Amino acid sequence: MCKDCEETFSKVERAFALNIFYPYQNDTLGNQDFQYGEWLYPFIVSVNWRILYLDLAEFRKSQSLNETSLKILSDAEESMRNFLLGNIQNVLPIENHLFLFPEISIASPEIAKQNPNVFFRTSAYGYILINTGFNSFYVYSNLAGILLVTIIKKAQGEVWNNTIVDPSGGIIKIPRNVRSPLINDVLEYCKEQKNWPQISDQQKQKIIDKIKENINKFENSRFYKFFMADENLKKSSR
Question: Which domain of life, per UniProt (predicted)?
Fold first, then answer.
């Protein structure tokens, strides 16, 4: 990005952190309506544009996408870039959504054993999803339980209630309900944790020793809260 673009991103990033990220992590946002300003729309566009831009470069290099899919993503990238440069007022018909992960209390045994509460609430990642079965296209980011979604092309019958972000600001209301192929992919991504490298016994012992130094601090930590939520989830899913 150019210098002016980076400065603009810094401002909207700060607004997102103060108004959504920190309140959500501190459990003061939760299951309630909340307002957002004009800063949220460009924040989501900028975060997901970077992912789209970088992944598109890889797709072009590897020639792994068909021409139709490549054009859909390329057109979306151009529209998002033009918005960030101030050339257009929005990226319609592309939609931007925000979804806050609630505590996961019901799940299949396969999902439960992957510690989804710890995974979603302590990780940060993002990528493109192309669902060929539904002919739908998305870019999404998970920021410690805050799902930022850019829907390039919706699936038929897809539902996002009280999650859409308006360019001029607005209110994210409750209840927030989603029925989308994207959610299935998000859960599948969580299941793939079992293929990640495991920490060594020596590393585990170091962590245990560190916890023992201050048990009270650990029991009051966010990680412990999510860990216990996953332990309860495993019991209820058996």
Answer: Bacteria
CA distance 197 to 208: 19
Q: What is the pTM of this model?
A: 0.88
Q: What CA–CA distance (Å, rounded) separates 70 from 68? A: 5
Instruction: State how many domains the chain has.
Output: 1
Is the separation of the CB atoms in 128 and 73 below 8 Å? Answer: yes
Containing domain of residue 74, as a range? 3-237
* Residues 84/1, Cβ–Cβ less than 8 Å: yes
Average pLDDT of span 209-218: 76
Structure confidence by residue, pLDDT tens digits, 49-75: 999 999 999 999 999 999 999 999 999
What is the Cα–Cα distance from 6 to 24, expressed in whole angstroms? 25
Q: Are 148 and 12 in contact (CB under 8 A)?
A: no
Strand partners for 98: 148
Based on the number of CB atoms within 10 Å of its own CB, is 42 exposed (0-12), middle (13-18) or buried (19 or more)?
buried
Alpha-carbon gap, residue 233 to 109, rounded angstroms: 9
- Per 3-state DSSP, the chain is made up of helix, strand and coil in percentages (nearest 5) of 50, 20, 30
Q: Is 170 helix (H, G, I), strand (E, B) or coil?
A: strand
Rounded CA separation 205/43 (Å): 40
